[in-house]
Amino acid sequence: MKTLDLHIHSTYSDGTFSVEEIIKSAKSIGLTTISITDHDTVEQIPDCISLGKKYGITVIPGVELSCSYKIKSLNKNKGLHLLGYGINPDNEAFKKEMDDQKAKRLIRAKKIADKFMAFGFKIDFENIIANKKGSVGKPQIAKAKNLIITAGSDFHSPRQRRGS
Fold this sequence. Notes:
The chain is α/β, with parallel strands linked by helices and 164 residues long. It has five helices and five strands; from the N terminus they run βαβαβββααα. It has helices spanning 19-28, 45-55, 92-118, 125-130, 138-144; strands at residues 4-8, 33-36, 58-59, 62-71, 76-85. It has a three-stranded parallel sheet. Helix 1 (19-28) packs parallel to helix 2 (45-55). The protein is globular and about 50 Å long.
């Protein structure tokens, strides 16, 4: 029987495990197919594909895109995340969109760091972004100060199979 998990985050966004750790874990719990759908980045895909082959796991190239739509009756924008599968990370238009998303996430992360600094935390934001692959967000800022951060609505590593 094939088992899969199509919504996993790695350290390329807000996950806590590297791509290799995720793929090894997926293999150990019996998953046959995964998709690492990091937030607004596809930088993880080459690692995913090569490590998937190495460990015998089918990898579907994926991404979780930050999107927004306007609620006309309230005259405000609402954010949502859209999962994309089977994407081509080498597509030039898609690369540009990822660059735009990365720039937006950087602005957002700087605002978060500024909030921490307003509370007296010393945050070396330049160091955080210099040492980060993929997208920058709350986990990287919290980790820089050994702070605990909790995930949102989705889990960020391969799930244990039910009944195991």
